[in-house]
Design brief:
single chain; alpha/beta; Rossmann fold; binds nicotinamide-adenine-dinucleotide
């Protein structure tokens, strides 16, 4: 990134806030992308960057990603993100996160934060001591607690919509699903798919996690190197980004790619290539939105309600259908259609918001 303002102009960013305290060795960035739909919301990442510009670019890029994620998910929130520059293993967490909480509080609700890479629920508790503008919280503080099961449920709803497109019906019974990564989301996906009658082949670099799943559900396993070569209906990436690339796309033998991992396409052109090879790709940010849909439901509704939250997550099925509709309408790959779903919703809601109601009436 050469010029910050040029970058912000190119992608229509609203604000960028820099926060520092020398005594606490604290440096953070809060990026606000678009607040048409509601307050800018997105997690706080803690990471060591090669340069300040890299950190700023990451915050901006991630904030924009949140705008698209919420817009396409039908949620009334805008996109924002915070980045703390520093070692994610840093021990003195209370002052760091309380100070971030103070800075967020000063923004008066413009930005709502949450957990992300390098931060924990405990860190969110520190933030909560200084501001109420934090969404990801343990249930004893009024939050939704562990959201991974809902992320998993959302991925499965996206899979069902993909099955409908490919096989004409959305049942997962008997479908062979290869799951890469058995962490917080992956192991929940395995459990839920097992209950739906799918046949599972699982893989993780941690043999204990594999053993746990094979013992519990009697599923097959395969080495992390060979997961891409498995004969299956659905490949479900739940570990790393960039796994859809020149090397793996030639090896995949599935009809559908649908998983929780962020940034699955190594480069945008792989989103075109995957379709040329006859596979249906569920854009990652559509399929993996369940956790955040569930988590942020209480911002609109005032409290956590499992039934209502789950119902909202379930609509990922319809969100996927919208993506397919626009992909067919405009003859474009699904990863681009997802962006279009988000952009069209923002444009339409902005139009609705032009019509003001006089508060004195
Ligand atoms: P996690 O760290 O709990 O699990 C990741 C798992 O992948 C670990 O078990 C790890 O051992 C395994 N792994 C790493 N490299 C691997 C490889 N090469 N082959 C096989 N397994 C490998 O993370 P998570 O919370 O389950 O998230 C998984 C993915 O989904 C991430 O990309 C994350 O960004 C994304 N995501 C998660 C959520 C959520 O609710 N947790 C929401 C949206 C997106």
């Amino acid at each position: 990134m050469e010029s910050i303002f040029e970058y912000m102009e190119n992608y229509d960013y609203e604000n960028l806030f820099l926060c520092q305290d020398k005594d606490l060795n604290f440096k953070a960035i809060i990026a606000i992308h678009d607040t048409t739909l509601g307050p800018a919301t997105g997690g706080c990442r803690m990471w060591q960057y090669e340069s300040e510009m890299d950190a700023i670019e990451d915050a901006l890029r991630l904030a924009r990603g949140m705008t698209y994620k919420y817009a396409a998910a039908g949620v009334n929130l805008g996109g924002g993100k915070a980045v703390i520059i520093g070692d994610p293993g840093r021990k003195d967490r209370e002052p760091i996160f309380r100070l971030l909480g103070k800075f967020i509080d000063r923004l008066g609700g413009l930005y709502i934060t949450g957990e992300d890479v390098g931060t924990t629920l405990k860190d969110m508790e520190y933030i909560r001591m200084e501001t109420r503008h934090v969404v990801t919280l343990p249930s004893y503080l009024g939050g939704a607690g562990d959201i991974a099961p809902m992320t998993a449920f959302g991925v499965i709803r996206a899979m069902q919509a993909c099955c409908k497109r490919v096989y004409g019906q959305d049942s997962l019974e008997g479908k062979v699903v290869a799951v890469q990564g058995l962490g917080a989301v992956g192991h929940n996906i395995v459990g839920q798919l097992h209950d739906l009658g799918a046949k599972l082949i699982v893989s993780d670099i941690d043999p204990k996690k594999v053993e746990n799943m094979t013992a519990r559900y009697g599923v097959e396993s395969i080495s992390p190197e060979n997961i891409y070569d498995v004969d299956c209906d659905i490949f479900c990436p739940c570990a790393l980004g960039g796994i859809l690339n020149d090397n793996t796309l030639d090896r995949l033998k599935c009809k559908i790619v649908c998983g929780a991992a962020n940034n699955q396409l190594k480069e945008e052109r792989h989103g075109e290539l995957i379709e040329e090879k006859g596979m249906v790709y569920a854009p990652d940010y559509i399929a993996n939105a369940g956790g955040t849909i569930f988590d942020t439901d209480r911002l609109e509704s005032g409290n956590v309600n499992n039934e209502r939250g789950k119902e909202k997550v379930s609509r990922i099925y319809e969100n996927m259908e919208k993506v397919f509709e626009i992909a067919d309408r405009d003859n474009i790959p699904t990863y681009l259609a997802a962006d279009r779903v988000a952009e069209e919703r923002i444009r339409q809601v902005a139009q609705v918001k032009r019509y003001r109601v006089d508060p004195r009436l």
